[in-house]
Structures are given as C-alpha cells and as structure tokens.
Amino acid sequence: MKIGIYPGTFDPITYGHIDIIKRSLKIVDSLIISITNNVSKKSLFTIDERIKLINDGILNLDKELYEKINVKSFEGLLTNFASENNASCIIRGLRAVSDFEYEFQMTGMNYHLNSKIETIFLMSSEKNSFISSNLVKEVHKLGGDVSKFVSDLVINELNKKNLM
Ligand code: PNS
Fold first, then answer.
1. CA distances to 77, 83, 94, 95 from 16, in Å
2. Would the CA dihedral through 38, 35, 133, 130 be positive or negative?
3. Rounded mean pLDDT, 150-164
4. Distance of CA 117 to the CA centre of its chain
5. Is the pLDDT of residue 45 over 80?
6. Where residue 113 falls among pLDDT bands split at 50, 70, 90?
7. 35 close to 112: Cβ distance less than 8 angstroms
8. pLDDT of residue 9
9. Cβ atoms 92, 119 nearer than 8 A
10. 131 lines ligand 1 (CB under 6 A)
11. 9 CB within 6 A, ligand 1
C-alpha cells in the first residue's frame, strides 16, 4: 500500500490542485492532502476554511478516487508528518520553469531530512499551467472572472473575504 502526501498551502484550492490530486492517484494507493502554512506566505483563509474548501472540491471526484483521499492539516516539518503517516512519497505539481528552483531546493532539503521519502513531480496539464492560488485571489479581488479556475464555493468564500 503506497501512501502519498500532497502538501501545500491550498489558499484556496484550485482546479490545478484537483488535477494533480486525480493524477497522483494513478501512482499511489492513497493520498493525504496535507495543509499547512507556508512561513513565507500570508494566507487569506484559515486552515479550517481551507480544509472545508478542499473537502468540497474533492466531493465531485469518482467515488473510487474519493475513498482513497484523506485531508489533514499539520504543523512542523513535512518530512516528520510524512513519516508519522507512513507515506513513502511527496507529490508536487510543477507548472513552469519558474517553479523549478524552489521545488529543487525543497526536494533536496526534504531528502536530507528523510531520505526514505521520495518527491514525485507531476507536470501541470497545459490548461492549468498558469493557475495559481495567488493569481486567483488577485484577479478575483480586482473584479476578474475566476470561475474557470476555482469552484463556486471558493468564489463565494472569496466574495466574503473581499467584503471584510
Ligand atoms: O503550496 P506551497 O505554499 O507551495 O506549499 C509549500 C509547503 C507547504 C509544501 C512547504 O512550505 C512545506 O513543506 N512546509 C512545511 C514545513 C517544512 O517542512 N519546511 C521545510 C521544507 S524544505
């Protein structure tokens, strides 16, 4: 039984994330979507709000995939969380060359911290290659249409945040 971890800030979850979730389930038997705060980013949504949006986002997946997914939050090192959950690999999506340097450094550090855990990269599909949570938040805040990138619930929650 191969358990994978899909970590991220998911602030908020986008269709790009959902695509990686679906595709990673071709590689692992079960997947833990793992939410944490990235120390170098300020999050718009709380961890609980992000969990709610992720749970909603995966509801439409085929039952067979849905049953293989757990959603959990964690604090501290990803490699510790991965080994506590018996995960053998970390899954990350790669959108563009610009993602590479950051991912390369994180992979090296995570491997140094625990060499039993491999990081596997999935290239974003072409239609998702330019989607990021940050751009979705910015475009939405400035009145742009983000309905092709995130669910209606995410848009509702973004609307609420913008009214605050
Ligand atoms: O979605 P993001 O912001 O690119 O995800 C980054 C994340 C959450 C995967 C990264 O910040 C992380 O692993 N944080 C947990 C703390 C940790 O282990 N830091 C060392 C990473 S080398």
1. 24, 26, 10, 9
2. positive
3. 94
4. 18
5. yes
6. very high
7. no
8. 98
9. yes
10. no
11. yes
**Catalytic option among 133, 137, 140, 151:** 133
CB of 117 closer than 8 Å to CB of 90:
yes
E strands, 13-137, are 30-35, 69-73, 89-94, 118-123
Give the other-Cβ count within 10 Å of 70's Cβ: 12
Domain 3-163 has CATH 3.40.50.620: yes
Helix axes 15-24, 47-58, angle to 10 degrees: 60
Residue 164 confidence (pLDDT) above 90: no
* Nearest atom, ligand 1, residue 109 CA: 22
Among residues 89, 76, 94, 75, which one has the least CA distance to residue 32? 89
The number of angstroms, rounded, from the C-alpha of 162 to the middle of its chain's C-alpha atoms is: 23
Residue-wise pLDDT for 15-24, tens only, equals: 999 999 999 9
Residue 108 has what pLDDT? 98
- Asked if 1 and 29 touch (Cβ cutoff 8 Å), the reply is yes
For residue 133 and ligand 1, the question of a CB distance below 6 A is answered with no
